Amino acid sequence: MINFAVVGMGHIAKKHIEAIEKTEGANLFAICDTNPDRLEEAGDGVKKYTDLGQLLAENPDIDVVNICVPSGLHARLTKIVAEHKRHIIVEKPMALKLEDAESMLKDAEQHGVKLAVVHPNRFRPAIQALKEKMDSGSFGTLSHANATVRWNRNQAYYNQAEWRGTKEFDGGVLMNQAIHDLDLMLWLMGPVESVQAMAATRLRKIETEDVAAAIVQFKNGALGVIEAATTVYPQNLEESLAIFGETGSAKVSGKTANFIETWNFEDTTEEDSKSLADRVKGNPFGKPGHQCIIEDMIVAINQERNPIVTGEDGLAPVKLILAILESAETGKKVVLQ
Length: 337
Hints:
Rossmann fold; 2 domains; 37% helix; six-stranded parallel β-sheet; 337 residues; Dihydrodipicolinate Reductase, domain 2
């Protein structure tokens, strides 16, 4: 049995707790939040703390800590957990600053603990099928890709807490919403060579961007287009990822990117493409991504291997987003290192 502790009892913590409770071999051992009122929302049978250091010091049986606090605090808490030699699952984005993300990697390596970043969309059935096609070479030479997030997050969403929409603790549409799609784009297309971008704060009263657009060139020579917004009226319209190559075209879309809209490959019959699309439609979400992350961490511990979504994986979209924001601010193309 692997014992888990969840730190930060906001909205996303509920997904972590549910995932732990549904996973065989996982046990929710403790929860932690600086606000004691939030601890009372949890049921009995779970230890409750307002101080992370105290929680770790008093409970050596805890194996993994799930960090669900505002993004700007991830690096600080990762350091504490790593120093206590416990494995770490951290919500996306892993950090808002490059130096914080890099310090998280160093802390985990220095203390010999595993660091997994929550990018749950990788486990959706349509995305898994897309990854299989990419790995098999069915696209041939890649031409370009497109990631689109046309969502609504109204002012009431940002007003839920003072940290929302801030540069120090939260980030904007790229770090909060589009980062899932940028993770998928990088996972499928490979690293980015350069980016040219624009971003703006058009409708929401926040410090960060609520709309952004970027053109990227991947190191393999393919191009990419990114569009992200939380300004779409009156509700979420579309989240999609499209990839185009010499011998294949595919688009996964819907209000959230769960359905196969286009599936045309030289090595796949029209009948097989339709069959796959119908299967995905019948179970578009599959097993919850957070549960997949929990299950994988247990296997990684037992088999002494790295998690499927590593800290390095979490760093990649953060670097891309920071490059997009730098390009938008300077008006210049940014070359990634």
